[in-house]
Amino acid sequence: MPSTPSFNVSRNRQIDRRRFLASAVAGSTGLWLASPFARLAFGQDTADHRDLIFHQKDPLNGEPPLGVLPSEFVTPTKHFYIRNHGNIPDLDRQGHRLKIEGLVEASHDFSLQELSENFEKSDCVATMTCAGNRRREHNAFKPVSGVQWDAGAIGNATWGGIKLSDLLKHCRLKEGASHVWFEGADDVSTPSGMTHFGGSIPLDKAMTDHGQAPGALVAWEMNGQPLTPEHGRPLRTVVPGYIGARSVKWLSRIIVGDRPSPNHYVRSAYKLVTAESDLIKAEQNPIYRFPTNVAICEPAPEAMAANGSVTVRGYALPTGLPDARLREVEVSANGGRRWVKARLLDEHVPFCWSRWEANVPVTDRTTALLARAVDTVGGVTPDRVTWNTHGYLYNGWHHVPVKVAG
Amino acid sequence: MPSTPSFNVSRNRQIDRRRFLASAVAGSTGLWLASPFARLAFGQDTADHRDLIFHQKDPLNGEPPLGVLPSEFVTPTKHFYIRNHGNIPDLDRQGHRLKIEGLVEASHDFSLQELSENFEKSDCVATMTCAGNRRREHNAFKPVSGVQWDAGAIGNATWGGIKLSDLLKHCRLKEGASHVWFEGADDVSTPSGMTHFGGSIPLDKAMTDHGQAPGALVAWEMNGQPLTPEHGRPLRTVVPGYIGARSVKWLSRIIVGDRPSPNHYVRSAYKLVTAESDLIKAEQNPIYRFPTNVAICEPAPEAMAANGSVTVRGYALPTGLPDARLREVEVSANGGRRWVKARLLDEHVPFCWSRWEANVPVTDRTTALLARAVDTVGGVTPDRVTWNTHGYLYNGWHHVPVKVAG
Q1: pLDDT score at A46
Q2: For residue A27, what pLDDT is reported?
Q3: Residue-range definition of the domain harbouring residue A256
Q4: Of B292, B374, B384, which has the smallest distance from its Cβ to A382's Cβ?
Q5: In chain B, which residues touch A (CB < 8 A)?
Q6: A208, B154, B253, B378: least CB-packed within 10 angstroms?
Q7: Number of domains chain B contains
Q8: Do residues B165 and B207 lie in contact, with contact meaning Cβ atoms separated by under 8 Å?
């Protein structure tokens, strides 16, 4: 497969055979995920309808019930949210190749075997979060478009592969290189036609490794296993600290550019805008880093609690910077008048969440639990957040209604 | 003076005679502003030490006592904050020329007389706010650098001049034009040496006029008078809805570019960053639009109030978008448990603040007043905001400690 040193993002206007098959599987029958075929297609440690709540079938989008998230620091793959914009390509590990082109001295075209043999293996734990996590809370101001995520579009995994920095150094960057573009092998429909999903990150991010935490990883493993199809088999990027959209799946092409990628999901989507206006988009950078966040996972909304106290569990995430640590997570049972400090359950790992737990006094006047967090670089979860069209980056106080026995 | 169709931002490493004189005036004597000379230098309707609180003398930076701001919808020039990064050039109205170059069919070089004779005069009212307004509140998390502004680095003025869109249409834009750079005639010291203060705005903003509100104005009048020296005499830009830093004073050069200006105040400063890191800066766009904001101007901090109720006055500002209006301003006297709705005192004008007033019940347990606001595009003032190195865009609940007679 010859390398194509072109800056054009390739487009595919055909719905290919694989996509047709995926659509047929993910059809309109309510049994679609209960079939043995569905479980097979998703791999062994992967979610089916018993493990995730699916908001959409095509594209496939699902999140775990919140209650399972505090069980483990590293989220089992079957409980890891699945976020797709198009089809799930059925790619072959043997035949897959990764092209690297653009502002590099020589273009390359690697098989997975070549990647693993020529570069040092690297593993890291990093939390991935969809920019749309908690999207549905934005609706309190005005309805937002997109998958109506609750607070489960987040997960923490171990990722295995090679450092993007090593790969880029090997290819020798040219003058002017400043952004790294990623392109997947899926087919997505955008306002400007069919394309592949794409993302990009500043070159500085790609080249800035912090000990165990790489600036970015070109990964083929998740939780010690080869990537499952819906998590990007055979190859994806993982960008610790950045929104999930920058961790492009089914990675087929890396282009080193002198500006952010022109792909729809960089140029237009994944920006904080209040209207679909060229001007408002021009004012906004692509979203890269994720902000401080927090969620209550237990008790479930509308759960009954005994008068006295309730055990509250959840997760909190510091700002996506290597030196950001959680400083404080707090829970309130009376609308924010008094706050109870939660215990962090996990040791600090850069770019990772910590689970937390608090015993909170409640009375028969308690109607809801609130959670908030601050980190060591000044990140906060405010009481309310500014609304945006696509409902990105909701990180206000998490609010869970509860009932207390009288 | 020949037009120089160059993209280089001119630098001046010499401290020129004007700057020397300004420094001599703004010297170390405590009497410097009380002298008749100081008042003369500032023009007739301009602030002296009786009207503004000066945080710095060189560069000159001052804000009004908060209590004067609710007096009028249009802020008198003498109570309008003064924000400088370098000297205050002493420019001559007759001799001043404005160069326009870059991605235009023909470069131009206009006198003020040519601008006023060849283009339609335009007036608008617009609120200007320093991105550092309320900066000192960021210190509660960690000290921030820069002028320690209270909530007075904001003002509302009538501006007179011509629409930037008319000027740019006259010059006929070339293919690729996408940002408009402004350069002043002041001399500022930056980490990379002496330069002129500069700003830039997306071309779409420059070309998008909304009735009375231009995308941007090339202005020579403020509140019906020629600009005073410290507000940019003889010529400045005014960009409604954007932070004050984009409204460049002593405007001498407009360059149409294919990207944001490389000037220090676009490329590096005026970004929301948590550290002085190239990577973190690369993730951030220049700040353009201002967010929803609110402040209590009366009573003053630590004022005594009678048990019963207190009249609270202040200003609130919707997001800097033409269709954003204030939806609600609220005041709390008990830490945010109950909120009293304030009355807006001004009719809605796009890109302008409104003053507000509320009668708020207080008791001997009241220790502080809080204010918050929401607008119609989803802008909110949250309880807390994420910290940033330079303390920009503080817009959390405004908190004023008060004492109530027992």
Answers
A1: 63
A2: 35
A3: 17-282
A4: B384
A5: 141-142, 178, 202-205, 208, 274-275, 278-280, 282-285, 288-289, 291-292, 319, 321, 335-337, 374, 377-380, 382-388, 396
A6: A208
A7: 2
A8: yes
